[in-house]
Design a protein that fits this description.
Chains A, B, C, D, E, F: Keywords: Transferase. Chains A, B, C, D, E, F: Residues 21-176 form the N-acetyltransferase domain. Chains A, B, C, D, E, F: GO terms for molecular function: protein N-terminal-serine acetyltransferase activity; protein-N-terminal-alanine acetyltransferase activity. Six copies of one chain form a homohexamer. Chain A has 184 residues and is of the alpha+beta class. Chain A has a domain at 3-130: 3-Layer(aba) Sandwich (Aminopeptidase), CATH 3.40.630. The first copy, chain A, has six helices and eight strands; from the N terminus they run E-E-H-H-H-E-E-E-H-E-H-E-E-H. The first copy, chain A, has helices at residues 20-29, 31-35, 47-62, 108-123, 138-146, 175-182; strands at 3-5, 10-14, 67-73, 76-83, 92-99, 128-134, 150-161, 164-174. In chain A, a hairpin with a 4-residue loop joins strand 1 and strand 2 (10-14). The longest helix of chain A is centred in the first third of the chain and has 16 residues, at 47-62.
Chain lengths: 184, 184, 184, 184, 184, 184
Amino acid sequence: MFTLKVDEEIKLYLFQPHHAIELFQLVEKNREHLRSWLPWVDDMNSPSQFEAVIPLWLRQFAENNGITTGILYKGELVGSIAIQQIDWHNKSTSIGYYLARKAEGHGVMTRSVSALINYAFFQLGLNRVEIRCGEYNKKSRAIPERLRFVKEGKIRDGEELYGRFHDIIIYGILARDWKGMYFR
Amino acid sequence: MFTLKVDEEIKLYLFQPHHAIELFQLVEKNREHLRSWLPWVDDMNSPSQFEAVIPLWLRQFAENNGITTGILYKGELVGSIAIQQIDWHNKSTSIGYYLARKAEGHGVMTRSVSALINYAFFQLGLNRVEIRCGEYNKKSRAIPERLRFVKEGKIRDGEELYGRFHDIIIYGILARDWKGMYFR
Amino acid sequence: MFTLKVDEEIKLYLFQPHHAIELFQLVEKNREHLRSWLPWVDDMNSPSQFEAVIPLWLRQFAENNGITTGILYKGELVGSIAIQQIDWHNKSTSIGYYLARKAEGHGVMTRSVSALINYAFFQLGLNRVEIRCGEYNKKSRAIPERLRFVKEGKIRDGEELYGRFHDIIIYGILARDWKGMYFR
Amino acid sequence: MFTLKVDEEIKLYLFQPHHAIELFQLVEKNREHLRSWLPWVDDMNSPSQFEAVIPLWLRQFAENNGITTGILYKGELVGSIAIQQIDWHNKSTSIGYYLARKAEGHGVMTRSVSALINYAFFQLGLNRVEIRCGEYNKKSRAIPERLRFVKEGKIRDGEELYGRFHDIIIYGILARDWKGMYFR
Amino acid sequence: MFTLKVDEEIKLYLFQPHHAIELFQLVEKNREHLRSWLPWVDDMNSPSQFEAVIPLWLRQFAENNGITTGILYKGELVGSIAIQQIDWHNKSTSIGYYLARKAEGHGVMTRSVSALINYAFFQLGLNRVEIRCGEYNKKSRAIPERLRFVKEGKIRDGEELYGRFHDIIIYGILARDWKGMYFR
Amino acid sequence: MFTLKVDEEIKLYLFQPHHAIELFQLVEKNREHLRSWLPWVDDMNSPSQFEAVIPLWLRQFAENNGITTGILYKGELVGSIAIQQIDWHNKSTSIGYYLARKAEGHGVMTRSVSALINYAFFQLGLNRVEIRCGEYNKKSRAIPERLRFVKEGKIRDGEELYGRFHDIIIYGILARDWKGMYFR
């Protein structure tokens, strides 16, 4: 398992094909919870579907165009976080994530997002990280707000979720903001 | 030449390889003007470079993932307008454009954008069209404002232009807005 | 819809995926009529098959290797005409076509073929256009004869149609013939 | 060396990359002679160019879409003969060839063509073989005439050769003709 | 049929798609015999499966990365022999084979392997040929031993055969050994 | 940086494009030392060559066909270790490695190989791991011997190194050996 260390409790690991079952089980146990905001949840009904999609994530990683990882909290898979498509010309990317219900309330996601922001700014040399949340997805929005992202706009009908469009809030943080806040 | 009729004065045509010279000449004559807001202008220095990129635009068209056209105003090529990558899941796309200086002031671009919005909503069945403009690019911003797009946000450092980042304004219009405004 | 104007009554348009249903209906209504001379008619039994083949035609267009269009006569799809594979080394191509029964007798196909010949000679810069017809397909053969193509040969057993070979007549016209006949 | 036996004196062998030098030397020695009727001769100026094209011929063979062979006459490479693209739907193909000057006059090509016709009709199960010759290429035309092909037509400006178009004669033979002539 | 002549009785021919039926019949008649040592036998249950795999073998041939042939003994297909993946950097390859029961005892395989070794050393210019046999596959091991290969090692659990691992003996011969033994 | 933890001192990390410079420097500093046994050393003369090859390693990882990592010893890159092509049918792979001179003598490589063997047997579920060493490469051979691999054979002329062939020793270890030795 290839991991990016967040802190003593949390590690992010690259999904490989042999992780398909544990990833499926995570989704399976949190299906009701996750489907509120993730459009693909209803389509994923067996480990073999994850076994098919994981190589695509790794290929994206191989093309330096994003990273999809599992979040290990005290040794257990409790969620996923990803650097999505990278716009190398404009040195910009976005981060997406989801968390098992039972792991909520420990700052797991805030710490994981912080780690990937560091990764994006200091290892990849990017200039901007975006997080996009459904307008009424409070838990998701709490993450960028806690990390002092700037709310930059509202994309009307930005996402279709099970037949209904809803609005998307864009949050952004720039490398100079981040360094200013956390590295003085 | 395969054209989409805008009105009696204006047609949009799909660029094909044999249009490379006229497209190069358009850019060549408006180089100073265009490079203020378009990142690729300095890189395009010969017709053969357009001959190389036009097949990529046509391939994108073949994959139902965007359309790049030339704007014919009274029979002359005066600019370009494109439907950029299409997000079919969320039924959303964006439109980009540029115009020769000498064709400004006749509503050419406003009419052309209107035509592509109609195309996007009525032929492709999309739900949302976005226009992204540099914050200080007044002429570009005038188009979505004239067409009553909603200003939805400001993407900080959204684009790198010749070594300097600048902010990007996002404008959006939805199919229901458009139909409500123009088809009552 | 991207169109090549033939005259006030007729336009040729590039098929795109959202035209699959109207193309299917054209074939469906003229099935008996068309299957006499077209080998693929019996294989096309649903709009989704056209939805699958249209992107291949567009890809051929993107590779500058042919164009497949629908014929709009007074605003209605009444047939199809195509520039088939282009032999760029020898500057030569062939044209194929079919027409709904109810649109026969108005010169629709003769005018459409003329337009594509103009396109081949003046826009693509080709030197030779060929039309191949089944020996006993009188209506098809009438087109090149009316346009003063030269009958250049008979390919014995040139085509297999539903299990039986039949002979193919080759008609050819050269750019210099065409210009001599119509542009003096 | 993988060979198709023609008779005691002649064998046809599949070109492989390690044959590039001998093929280059054949062309080199017969350059003046060959360039009269073959458009590619002036472009081939080193063995490495043949080393690059031979894998493409083998790939065509692997796709069951043609065979390019060298003609061994009394153990020496004296020419080349090929089954060109195969139209499997219509069970038709064409044969092309060229011969070193010094090997002319022994019936080498007539025998080689006969062998490939047998191969096309009896091993591949095709129905029609075509040979296309420049109108004034007497030696080339003598082959299909000697083998009683039917002259089926003249393609005006069928080929461009070093900047000048010339007419092409089409000869055809059908499986039933061939079997009738040679196997009674 | 493209053949490599071994001697007056034996030829090796490149499998082409139209040979699928005869190859299937060979396997079908020797199924019990062959499945003892070949992992793929149980998976091949119709000629169409060979029709699918033969183009892959030909493609490997086109890429100069191996050759799969049928063994013709007195005009009848009695087995198969292949040059497997070629390691061009280290100038090394391996040979694999199988024979119909009824053709055993005539030296068919020893002579065929000799011919492919000559081919590998003298036509392809390789330096080393390897043969890998199951430890208890006496008939297979007899071939390299008869040809004075050196037994170089035993790969424990080198191959899985129907759910059970077994050990593999590696035999090797070098170009200089071969030339020393047979060409003094 | 995505790492596989070996122990408190050693981590293995997946090479990504932004590691090209440090990898180049490792090779540059140990060029004399490394070229004795690695065929590619003389060909790698700039960081950009590593930048080109790293995506190929990641692609191999994405295809579940091997892993190429850097060895971090006390936070510094001191060598590389890789799982090479995986034979999934036979559940077998091989491991290759090299180490900077200054990091020798601390058991770095023995511990790293152990970790990858664990990875191969317990995470990937393989059955056999092979290590191939030049016969006279004492330091390399010491690793499998220390880990109680079985010496299974000697491949004569197994590798070409700067124009000279040399013999290769094959060492193998099976999952059942490994579990027996280290997990009783």
